[in-house]
Amino acid sequence: MSEETYLYFNGINGATGDYELPPMKAKDLSAVALGETISEELYRELKNRHDNQEAHYGINADTSDLAETGWAVIFAAKDKQAPAIREALKPLLNLRKEQATKKNETYYKEFMGAEGYRPGDSHLDFLGREPRQMGPGPANPEKVPYYLLIVGDPETIPYRFQYQLDVQYAVGRIHFDTLEAYAQYAQSVVEAETGGELRLPRKAVFFGAKSSHDQATTLSAEQLITPLSKEVNTLQPNWDVQTLLAEKAKKAQLGALLGGKETPAFLFTASHGMGFPNGHPRQFPHQGALLCSDWPGPRAWKEPIPEDFYFSADDVSKDANLLGLIAFFFACYGAGTPQLDEFSRKALKAREAIAPHAFVARLPQRLLAHPKGSALAVVGHVERAWGYSFMWRDAGRQLQVFKDTLDQLMAGVPVGAAVEWFNERHAELSVVLTNEIEEINEYGKRRDDAKIAGLWTANKDARSYVIIGDPAVRLFTAPEDEKPAKRPTVTLPDATKATLGALSAESGAAAENTAAPQAAADTPTDYAVPFGLKEQVNDLTTSLRQFTDQLAQSLSKAASDISTLEVTTYTAGDLETLAKGEETQVELRALTRIAFDGDTQIYVPAEKQKIEEGLWQIHTAMVQEAQANRAKFLQTMAEMATNLLKSLKP
Amino acid sequence: MAPAQSAFTLSGIALPEEEDPLGIWQLSQTTEAVSFSAAAETPEEPAWRIALPELPETAEHLLTDHLQALTLSEQDLGQAQQTLLALSTQEAVSFSATEPLAGPQAALLDAVEALKQPVSYDLKLQEDAETQKLYRQWQSFIEQVRRTLMHYARIETTLAAAPVGLTEVGWTGDFKTTWPAKTTGFSPHRQYHLQAVHLALGSRIALLRVVSIVSTGAAGLALKAAMPGAQVLLLPATWKFVRDVLKELRKSWPQIQSLI
Questions:
Q1: Does residue A58 come out as left (phi exceeding 0), alpha (psi in the -120 to 50 range) or beta?
Q2: What is the pLDDT of residues B134-175, one digit of tens each?
Q3: What local confidence, expressed as pLDDT, does residue B187 receive?
Q4: A469 forms bridges with which residues in the sheet?
Q5: What stretch of H or E contains A647?
Q6: B45 CA: distance to closest CA in chain A (Å)
Q7: CA quadruple A306, A309, A311, A313: dihedral, nearest 10
Q8: What is the pTM of this model?
Q9: In this complex, do A575 and B179 lie within 8 Å of one another by their Cβ atoms?
Q10: Where are the beta strands (DSSP E) in A474-603?
Q11: What was the pLDDT predicted at B146?
């Protein structure tokens, strides 16, 4: 790859129809990488992980046996809804406790309250604190079990913490808007593992969207989906491996695979993930939705992307049957979105907000909490996914990580252990990249932009795969000598719903002051509100909250900058050029700066370029206009902020 | 109708149905004045453009008419606010079908009634295309008004297609104005631009007031619906009410020939 080679990303901006992130030059990315450092302790952790890769994958134990690995759940210390969520998850927690304590009763843990995640915790802060007293290195289940389920939104327990823990542990996350959703997920996992009825056909589907003149999906269809499905077919000859590409990879087909009659045991998709501008009304409901081959491609379609082109949570049928499904979405934002941008060219200056707050993608949330029976896990990407990850510089196609992961998953290894190959790749790339940067910055090694950019992108990409769901779940397929059975339906009993409704009312009041934005957005609702209506309430509340946040930011900024009001007057020889946004010569003719206390400073040119009378008069009139406008604007914003805050009160 | 060579356009803001609720500005999604190469990342900043004809009387007349329209819009917003307050505090509001606001009031009270039966309203939200559209329009409107808070206001005035003034108004009200160097003395062109700045900034504040009036109105009406979340579920219907009231009241304005 030359330094002028462009890197392409999987992601389409739904609001514009354009690429979510334009192709970037290697040298731009290289500059970002060179300015970025990781903490020394995390580097040691990654190096340790990398150096010991042959000995174990985060633990010296049989990763398929929870009695050897242990299992724990992590809540945020200040999550006031945690007791209610724990109650909703109780069937799952009881099951995991039973499985993990068969040999050692300390192998099951619940980290909540004072033992939970605290704001600002790094993984080592968390691991080292009482009662864990665990340092870096492989899991020691007596202190901290290998399988860790984070419960909470990524604003309260950040993705960064999840990435760090993931280096040595098998980590998953769940976050839902309602207690019923938590209970539905728990019930579905328990049914899958203990019900005895879930014996899925050994069917895996590889779904590769591809649109005309689109380099990203052409690459993923031809260099990822096609060869990977062939490899998997060879590795797992007892599985029915189907490949759907291009015209066969349309939205209607994906609907049949995600809850319809063709739903497989395992689904792997490669596509663009939908992205939307920060705060866009479709961002929360549709970011990370899967863009299908219905999209005609970037040349033929230059408008906002309609919902007909992509598959979102809204498209999962209410009658879908998803029990037992494990899916892997190779797509931007397929698992979630952080608040701050990791990749934009603006990263050369400062990371900017790409969302009002970090969140879990709605599609996996919907799949994992379906009221007729849920999928067990979704492996996906937080932030943008990079095609470069499976194409390595001059070496070409690199599928080993994907291949090994899928091979283990289809052999029945729990998803958290199966994806350790990605964590291993992250560790290796981090070590190599850090060494390379050190050589350049400290020892003057000649900088190879293409190499740095490649390492950096692949490293970020490997790091950002996360599991939405319990990391200890696995595929439940029929044994070879048994006939597969129809997926059972799992619905919550009415009594459970009633209990959760009462709990919700209690915990809603207790959680009023919690920090999680998504939880806060839900406070006006209760469980008496039907599902569709609740969605509308959430969306409307979210948009109003974003507006109020913007207003608060404006007022705050105004408050800090209000000390002076500046009115400047320029003249330009060619105002037309200036109006077009192009550069032209301008001359400053007058500047009035009025301080908060009324102290006024006026600057005009020296005697020989004296400002002409007419210009001075209009400058003075502009000063008066500016004073009147500022007063009225601030007054309106303050009134509006007061009113909106009242509206947002539950 | 406005003279063909004149226009009061607002670009960089995509208001629902490409319609300014104040009835003053034409909305334009494209502009030749500002272009950002990374369009997907950086949306165009809101710009208020006033294109005036060369004839001085016509130009002055146009500006006066639009400033008068702004004043009337502000008054109408006050009336919409008062009507919402009355609707939320009175048990029953009597109005004749012939009154100009009868239609919007009836539609709003229907929405409140519907919310008292959440299940049926749920179905309505999901199945009624018109309700869905309204819901999306409100979301879009609030997003677009939010954008006006994120960006500088840019005001450009042209006379017979030649620029006469360009002003950028920052966050905290700082003004930066550029004038053509060739204009000297007490040119009326400068007064045109000053009036244009007043009109644009007044319109921006009026749009912010719409959000404020809608949100307080919805919160007041929610007491009638008495269900969780009603204060936000009523936002789209309340927004439609305010928009319709402004439209209705515009019909009784003194004739302003030059308005679009």
A1: left
A2: 877 887 888 788 777 777 789 999 999 899 999 998 867 889
A3: 80
A4: A377
A5: helix A613-648
A6: 12
A7: 10
A8: 0.57
A9: yes
A10: 564-572, 586-595, 600-603
A11: 78
Q: Residue B119: what pLDDT?
A: 43
Residue B30: the pLDDT is: 42
Of A561, A623, A625, nearest to B197 by CB-CB distance is: A625
Residues A545/A576, Cβ–Cβ less than 8 Å:
no
Per DSSP, helices labelled H in A52-113 are 66-69, 82-88, 90-100
CA B104 to chain CA centroid, Å, is 18
Q: Which two tokens stand for residue A219?
A: 């690459």
- Predicted ipTM? 0.84
Pairing type for strands A170-174 and A336-337 reads unpaired
Peptide bond connecting A414 to the previous residue in cis, omega within 30 degrees of 0:
no
Amino acid at A203: K
Contact at CB, A565 and B173, closer than 8 angstroms: yes
List CB contacts (< 8 A) between B143 and chain A.
Answer: 279-281, 543, 546-547
Note whether B139 contacts A633, CB cutoff 8 Å.
Answer: no
Q: Which of A527-536, A585-594, B96-105, B205-214 has the lowest mean pLDDT?
A: A527-536
Beta-ladder partners of A377? A326, A469
Locate tokens 């549709």: which residue? A286
Are the Cβ atoms of B41 and A530 closer than 8 angstroms? no
Q: Best residue in A566, A567, A615, A647 to probe B by mutation, most B CBs within 10 Å? A: A647
Phi/psi at A391 (nearest 5 deg)? -125, 115
Q: Do A526 and B228 touch (CB under 8 A)?
A: yes
> What would you report as the CA-atom Rg of chain A, rounded to the nearest whole angstrom?
27
B139: closest chain A residue by CA: A281
Beta bridge partners of A215: none
Enumerate the residues of chain B whose CB falls inside 8 A of the CB of residue A619.
177
Of A143, A152, A94, A144, nearest to A118 (Cα)?
A152
B31: nearest CA partner in chain A: A580
Chains A, B: CB contacts within 8 A come to 222
Question: Residues B126-139: what's their mean pLDDT?
Answer: 71
Low-confidence stretches of chain A (pLDDT beneath 50): 1-4, 54-56, 345-349, 509-533
